[in-house]
Amino acid sequence: MDEKVIQNTHCRLCKSPKLTQFLDLGDQPPANAFLAEKDFAREEKFPLRVAICEMCGFVQLAHVVHPDILFRAYVYVSSTSPIFVRHFEGYAQDVAETVGGMKDALAVDIGSNDGILLRPFQALGARVLGIDPAVAIAEKATEEGVETWPEYFGEELAKRILKERGAAKSITANNVFAHIHDLDNILKGVEALLSDDGVFVIEAPDLIVLLRDKLFDTVYHEHVSYISIRPLLPFFSSHGLRIFDVKDVESHGGSLRIFACHEKGRYATTERLAARIKKEEDLRTQEPETYQAFAKEVDGIKTELTRMLCDLRKDGKRVAGYGAPAKGNTLLNYFGIGPELVEYIVDDSPFKQGLFTPGTHIPVTSSSALQEKTPDHLLILAWNYAEPIMKKCEPYHAKGMQFIVPLPSPRIVE
Ligand SMILES: [Zn+2]
Predict the structure, then answer these.
(1) Backbone dihedral angles phi then psi of residue 163, each to the nearest 5 degrees
(2) Alpha carbon of 53 to ligand 1 centroid (Å)
(3) Residue 280 CB: number of other CB atoms within 10 A?
(4) Is residue 45 part of a domain?
(5) What is the value of pTM for the model shown?
(6) Ligand 1 centroid – CA 29 distance (Å)
């Protein structure tokens, strides 16, 4: 793809042209594109619309932004968070137990970031190779002992890895499978590189959780797909692969860990997978009507939250935000919340401090701002960390500052 953005005309999985749009979040800049004031005029926006395939029920964005715009300069470095480190240690353990040990076997991680998952694989005795297009992060990971190639994974690269390193016993893709437009190329690569007894493991946010908790803010340009199991089954099968297990995991409010192997691989299909398929049927996750109802609920949240903030402003109250994650930007942009309603946003990442939120141009600062200009209300945009944030801000709360949690329905915590 050469253009900056293309319209997604055919289902990513079954290739049907019958994509029905159900949620239009408007034109938005990439959700991680924090910027300096001098760059406001140059900011680019792209359509953010979600559709469902009428044939297979796969939920996907109606437009795809070029991955170089989204990922090449990625600054998010995951190992900084101890919660993530523990999560990935458990993840590597889970994969190793599934395959019966990883000692001396090759573990390849797609979208490996700073090596957060491959490090625990190393500790289990595996040989590791990371693949990540973010050049600076790949370089740093390699320097720190996790060899990482600054590339996009696909069939061609898989063949190169196979030639140089042999077959992989585990191939993992965390929060990256849902980021990739050309999934055929990914599965062709996996099919080529995976050893006969190997497993391919995907972790991605669960579409059922998105529907249940109204997490429309997890929609942004990076997330071109929203994962449920049923549409994936025939797609994997068409590439000689078979999904044999799926587990619920905590990350990002609720994710799926999906296990696949070669069609004739030695892994038996689990009860868990059957139960999940049944659950999707019961919740009608392949029906467009389910999503039309969801979009209506999202608009209800929009009305409620913006009214709440406008009323507070009218009463002369000062509102600040806590957390500047990508999802916060989807919410702010869609709801049209700018610096006139939210004065500033506190974020602990030094990469974001001193910059402004994409699209809405709210200044991002360190938490010292809360001390200097304590707001009356604090809008928690990183809702998945609401508990630790409220704990951390308890001294301000004790002095009268109130918290606003926006989802699943806006509420003030007094
Ligand atoms: Zn489809």
Answers:
(1) -65, -40
(2) 5
(3) 18
(4) no
(5) 0.92
(6) 27
Distance from the alpha carbon of residue 293 to the mean position of ligand 1, in angstroms: 20
Sequence length of the chain is: 414
Last residue of a domain, one of 247, 263, 286: 286
Q: Cα(235) to centroid of ligand 1, in Å?
A: 9
Q: How many CB atoms lie within 10 A of CB 45?
A: 15
Question: For residue 193, how far is its CA from the centre of ligand 1 (angstroms)?
Answer: 26
What pairing do the DSSP bridges indicate for beta strands 127-131 and 63-65? unpaired
Examine the fold and report which residue of 286, 319, 353 is the final residue of a domain before the chain moves on.
286
Q: Could you tell me if 132 and 238 lie in one domain? A: yes
Evaluate whether 295 touches 23 at the Cβ level (below 8 Å): yes
- How many angstroms does the Cα of residue 251 sit away from the middle of ligand 1? 26
Q: Which neighbouring-strand residues pair with 61?
A: 50
**Bridge partners, residue 242, by sequence:** 261
What is the Å distance from ligand 1's center to 58 Cα? 5
When mean pLDDT is compared across 14-28, 78-92, 258-272, the lowest value belongs to 78-92
Distance 46 CA to ligand 1 centre (A): 23
Determine how many CB atoms are found less than 10 A away from the CB of residue 376: 14
The rounded Å distance from CA 13 to ligand 1 centre is: 5
pLDDT tens for 366-389 read 999 999 999 999 999 988 888 899
